[in-house]
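Budget justification note: compute hours in this period were largely spent on complex prediction jobs such as the one shown. Inputs:
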Amino acid sequence: MITDLFLRGRGRERMSVTDIQALEDSVEDVRTLGPRQLLVERGREVQNSTLLLEGLMCRYMDDREGHRQIVAFHVPGDFVDLHGFTMKRLDHDIGTLTPVRYGVVPHARLTTVTESWPRLTRLLWFSTLLDAAMHREWIFRLGRLGAEGRVAHMFCELHARMAMIERVTDGSFTLPVTQVDIAEACGLTSVHVNRVLRSLRERNALTFKGGVARILDLKVLETLSEFDPLYLYGSDVELGAG
Amino acid sequence: MITDLFLRGRGRERMSVTDIQALEDSVEDVRTLGPRQLLVERGREVQNSTLLLEGLMCRYMDDREGHRQIVAFHVPGDFVDLHGFTMKRLDHDIGTLTPVRYGVVPHARLTTVTESWPRLTRLLWFSTLLDAAMHREWIFRLGRLGAEGRVAHMFCELHARMAMIERVTDGSFTLPVTQVDIAEACGLTSVHVNRVLRSLRERNALTFKGGVARILDLKVLETLSEFDPLYLYGSDVELGAG
DNA sequence: CGTAACGTTGAAACCTGTCAAGTACGGTGG
DNA sequence: CCACCGTACTTGACAGGTTTCAACGTTACG
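Corresponding output:
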């Protein structure tokens, strides 16, 4: 099914058969888009939301000089701009990092969901709050950690999220981003990200080359970044809104 | 009414009389709490959500050494931990800055709301997404701005939010926080916050003394911090989810 | 009027940014 | 197959912003 990865590893099992069907029916169309493309522009009115099926996307804001701050990464199964449903206009841009395949979910159908499927509604709501929880952790990361901690934290999070959707093999996962992207996410310069990656490599904690991340020592990364996956609300943690 | 400030200045007018009544009825009790108290502890299971009626609260996370990162401020009218409704456990602590008065909203009543009042449900959802939008702006602030920009940004945001609930007189508003609090919100040391505040004062942009902020030149603050209030989704901006 | 919390200031250390140059790699066209 | 090109990555030296450490001033309050 199209929506198979939605909330995978995050309490998807709370969805009933009818919930799953209602969600599946809310997808009007499946489309593709190339890498490094703008999908939704800040301030533009949106009528649909986007369920990412394959590829990597990100949300970002540019400063006055055009320097980008990435505020979120999105992996398959993520409802990238579900918040557009209740907000109508977004306060940031959404773009692709890699080629993507995504489902188009018209807001009209979501309105119907909220009127007929209260539990599914709460789960959709929950999924937008996961984003907020990740935002908070990024605030912590930027506010309290040094460069190494920030980068390590980013890899810890992506490793955990990739694991939930079964994209991690042997501690390795595909992450087709550049060092510039990492810098833009971590509030650093690409030059410094380069130095940090070298340092992490020399600690035998992580390698990142050719768009492939290999976790060598998760414990070291977690210690460096004070990472605690609680905020990802994985299924191993007891959840609410059932 | 108890819930008068909820979504004030943020599209409250979209609430119908019955929505307002349903929300009002969801408040089980009104309580008070002293300053600098913990209201909800990270990881603890929650059964109620908190509608702040009077006073200031904040959400924060501590690092390994006990250094606090404030991830959100809350002013009257804010549903401080509505996300607890669908998340059940919170990933951060919630505490008071000043003495507060707040409404207790049992999750059971919220479940009923989601089953009977789809539009109110969407508005509650929307209110949690406002927090997420503010989180994103804080990420931007920490990732892309220097110390002056961060502090200026914080004051711009609080000024705008206080204005929405009519707590600004003549460019001044009460903000009973210390320089340490500001530092913990902006990812700086209190020593440096002190220097920044002096600098902003010398620019004739802002004074902050004795828990009172006075905006002298909003334009300067907005320029310094690249502040754009779009993300606050004020009523002057067209909104969705009607 | 003493005390504790908060605020203020200076000097030095440290981390990250900036600038500049050079390397590695993959794709394209001859 | 190789020369060429652009993009991404790498490294070094130096500049600059923020932290750290330490001391002192100020204010509120019992």
